[in-house]
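Internal ticket - ligand job 410, pyridoxal-5'-phosphate:
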Amino acid sequence: TVNTNGQLSIGGVEVKDLASQFDTPLFVYDENHLRERCREAVAAFGADSVIYATKAFLCKAMAKLAYEEGVLLDVATGGEFHVALSAGVPGNRCVMHGNNKSVDELRMAITNNVRHIVVDSFDELNRLEALHAEGLPAPRVQLRITPGVHVNTHDYVSTGQDDSKFGFNLNNGDAHRAIEQARASSAVDLVGIHCHIGSNVLAIENFEDASKVMVDLFASSGLQELTLGGGLGVAYTEKDNAPTMQQWADVLKRAASSLPPTARVYVEPGRSIVAAAGITVYEVGTVKKIDGIRTYVAVDGGMSDNMRPALYESEYEVFDPERTTADRTEHARIVGKHCESGDILVFDAPVPPNIAVGDLLVTPVTGAYGYSMANNYNKVTRPAVVFVADGAARLVVRRETLDDLTRLDV
Ligand SMILES: *Cc1c(COP(=O)(O)O)cnc(C)c1O
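stdout (structure tokens):
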């Protein structure tokens, strides 16, 4: 919200106070917003039907929050699973994903009693056979199917097309072969099928197309569980339009309406739970006006805390939290402090006039795939993360120190 002083405020705390208390760059999440998004998803899809894709944003506080809100957790590596377990989330509230799970990751999933494992390949089925032969119990599994559906999103996050590293291809017969093999095996308890067509999907028809294919396969399979993935897009800039959680639910429910009431349908939202709940706060360190070309505004973070512009040419808006309502009459490229020209946060941002060294800048909608992709490029320390609610801020991930940067050196 913008308060009566024209100051950007989150969870009842002014962003400028957060910056002076916790320093910059800083990830700030509105905790009530996170909780409301979880509740909205549970209300739209039903209890124990929503699986939060933790790769979008994970720390112990987030894992605990999702668990408290009745949301299951999708973990795609042993590392994500470890964080969820460390936060006190029971193994059976987690679902194990990944296109190349190691034997150790599979063993960890089974011994910690995950709700189910989403099996991605024949090699993984073989590994599960070997673990069963070692004496481990047969886990409940779903098979990830690649339905052969193209979505309108960046190629790097499109996962449901035939040419994909994910899942069992439906069109070439692999999906049917995998279902037969899993059904015949005593090493796994095949309970369902799964698809996830991609990320930041803004066209609701894409979900409709994939769901139809999956519902047909599911109906003929006689299985009990169907997961229709995540991928609901969000609005990053003024010109974006994203479907609501309810619109997404309506489309999936319509597609699944022919199924018997005993069928359990899961969804796996990641981005749509956390993206809009978070902002990043930076401080301006350099302003460089190149006459006739452009103005570069450099902040104290960059591609180490937000990889998305460099990876996908993603667009963001930027605001001065102390002049939130000011007309943004000038243009600038907002860049970071890394040694690359591709270290861009906003390619061509409308900004208020006279941005100066020491000003704060905020990029909204950085709650997903920001901190989770953060890195130490140039030995930059990763930012702190705070949750704010009801006028109080709490640190949930501390800022890295210089000593953290040599912690792994031997
Ligand atoms: C990433 C992922 C999701 C979540 O995707 P979002 O676009 O963040 O909603 C869901 N399921 C699987 C298997 C994923 O890999």
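Auto-summary: Residues 53, 55-56, 74, 97, 196, 199-200, 229-232, 268-272 surround pyridoxal-5'-phosphate (CB under 6 Å). The radius of gyration is 22 Å.
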